[in-house]
Amino acid sequence: MTAASPIDDCASELRILYLEDESLIAMNYVAMLEAAGAVVDDCTTLGAAFTALDEGTYDVALLDVNIRETMSFPLAAAALAKGLPVVFVTGYGKDVLPPEWSGHVVCEKPCSQAGLLSAIQQALLKKDAPTSVDPHLH
């Protein structure tokens, strides 16, 4: 992108926890986010993402829904319990989310830099909105 937009500004200096098990997708999206000024910790397994969440400080969590046939909802619940907004990044669309997660932002793969940044901005704006998700759901 040649000129900064308000969406670009939302990513500047943001610390993002990103969970994605497909390495090519992860490399592409990390590059997009870093180009917008974000600091991204990318993880390829739920275990690594839980460790990063416990040890790091983040502004938002971007989570692929299906990680090697395991759903990322327990990590999403842990992120919410720490006060992080969650964006689900998935090729399955919003319909894959159980009803208790349907109020969260979904960015459908494949997506552009603008799509990722827009989803992050939406999640950050919703951050203070009450959620019906029990952080103890697994």
Would you give the CATH topology of the domain at 1-69? Rossmann fold
- Can you give the mean pLDDT? 87
- CATH top level label of the domain at 1-69: Alpha Beta
Percent range for helical residues? 25-40%
In CATH, the homologous superfamily of the domain at 1-69 goes by the name Response regulator
Q: Could you spell the SSE succession in H and E letters?
A: HEHEHEEEHEEH
Spatial strand sequence of the major β-sheet: 2-1-3-6-7
β-sheet strand percentage = 15-25%
User: Distance N terminus to C terminus?
Assistant: 39 Å
Radius of gyration: 14 Å
Number of strands: 7
Poorly predicted ranges (pLDDT <50, ≥5 residues)?
Answer: 1-8, 134-138
Structural class: alpha/beta
Number of helices: 5
Structure description:
The chain has a domain at 1-69: 3-Layer(aba) Sandwich (Rossmann fold), CATH 3.40.50.2300. The protein starts with 5 loop residues before the first helix and ends in a 12-residue tail after the last helix. It has helices spanning 6-11, 23-35, 46-55, 73-81, 113-126; strands at 15-19, 39-43, 60-64, 66-67, 70-71, 86-90, 105-108. The chain is an alpha/beta fold and 138 residues long. The strands form two sheets. It has a five-stranded parallel β-sheet with strand order 2-1-3-6-7, sandwiched between helices. It is globular. Residues 1-8 and 134-138 have low confidence and may be disordered.
